[in-house]
Specification:
This protein has about 325 residues and is an alpha/beta fold. The chain has two domains: about 1-195, Rossmann fold; about 215-325, Rossmann fold. It has helices at about 70-80, 95-105, 130-140, 230-235, 255-260, 285-290, 300-315, 320-325, and strands spanning about 1-5, 15-20, 30, 35-40, 50-55, 85-90, 115, 150-155, 155-160, 165, 175, 185-190, 190-195, 215-220, 240-245, 265-270, 295. Strand 3 and strand 4 form a beta hairpin. Helix 1 (about 70-80) packs across helix 2 (about 95-105) and helix 2 runs parallel beside helix 7 (about 300-315).
Length: about 325
């Protein structure tokens, strides 16, 4: 842990910020050997008067290398912070939404936590890292950020960890997710202007002692006859299927789901919207639910996977898991 202090403002004592670096594009530069971008240097925080900064770097990884175990390390670090008013996590964008949601489900702290990163690296003239990092720090220290759980900020837009998703592979405004941002931070002449469009909502918290369950994701497509299902079901403790539309599958999947005693969660591959088990044809959502499948509500497949992984790691039964997903309170 490193610590630096900016001059305190005359109006009060310094605010205290924990800055946690984990790698990603925001810390990346072209490799000297010409092998492509790699995480190399944690980005500096633009000067914020009156802010004392604690810096932590538990690991430095590209986000495709992040695992639930790394997320758990972050959860432990954030949960153990003392004497801070807010925390910022810099993270690669590919799995940022998964880390944010994992923390949303498991992090018990009153300290506002904001995740951010960048889409462009430090040697590009349009590097978006410094602006996102400044926004995240100001947002984490803002009093209206209390009680909201982990947040994500990119390009001034503030997102809830439950619904945020990466919607573009390369654009600077790469994050979205229905129904959209829950707030906005802009830099005005008198400092940051923070506006939230929704109030804080309750969230249940889970505390798995270890993440020892295995959950796999399968992706539905036209003409799928269940290829890969039997192998995944055999080696996993639970499955999530990114299904079609409101949660429908080809008819060949229905007997496969009927035959398992493991939890099978039905999400949707569609960009937005809930799973609604309304269709009664073979493989339709209503028949899948009668066969024992569990609708994922509005969670996408990779977030449903994290919730199922946590519940299985806690030793929850299939009826208990069904009740959690049915409640829709994530």
């Amino acid at each position: 842990m490193n610590e630096q202090e900016s001059a305190a403002t005359p109006s009060g004592p310094p605010q205290r910020l924990a800055l946690i670096h984990t790698g990603g594009t925001i810390a990346s530069r072209p490799d000297p050997a010409g092998q492509g971008l790699t995480p190399q240097h944690a980005p500096p925080l633009p000067g914020l008067p009156g802010v004392t900064v604690q810096t932590h770097q538990p690991f430095s990884l590209p986000s495709p290398h992040i695992t639930p175990q790394h997320m758990n390390t972050l959860r432990d670090l954030l949960g153990g912070l003392k004497d801070v008013d807010g925390a910022v996590v810099t993270h690669g964008t590919d799995t940022l939404e998964e880390t944010a949601f994992f923390l949303h489900l498991t992090l018990a702290t009153d300290v506002p936590v904001v995740l951010t990163g960048s889409m462009r690296h430090a040697e590009e003239v349009s590097w978006d890292g410094p602006g996102n990092l400044r926004d995240a720090a100001q947002l984490a220290l803002h009093p209206q950020s209390q009680g909201r759980g982990p947040l994500v900020v990119f390009g001034g837009d503030v997102f809830d960890a439950r619904t945020v998703t990466k919607v573009h592979t390369s654009a600077v405004d790469a994050f979205g997710g229905y129904p959209g941002p829950i707030g906005r931070i802009d830099q005005g002449p008198d400092g940051p202007a923070v506006r939230y469009f929704a109030g804080p909502e309750p969230r249940p918290l889970y505390a798995p002692r270890q993440l020892d369950a295995r959950v796999e994701v399968l992706y539905a497509y036209a003409g799928w006859q269940g290829e890969g299902y039997a192998e995944a079901e055999q080696r996993a403790d639970g499955l999530v299927i990114a299904a079609l539309g409101t949660g429908n599958l080809p008819p060949q999947l229905l007997p496969l789901i009927q035959a398992t005693d493991k939890p099978v969660v039905i999400a949707t591959r569609t960009h937005a919207g809930p799973v609604l088990p309304v269709y009664g044809y073979p493989g339709g959502g209503a028949t899948l639910q009668r066969a024992g499948a569990i609708p994922a509500s509005f969670l996408n497949a990779h977030k449903a996977r994290l919730l199922l992984l946590i519940l299985l790691s806690e030793g929850r039964s299939v009826p208990e898991i069904r009740q959690v997903f049915a409640g829709g309170l994530f």
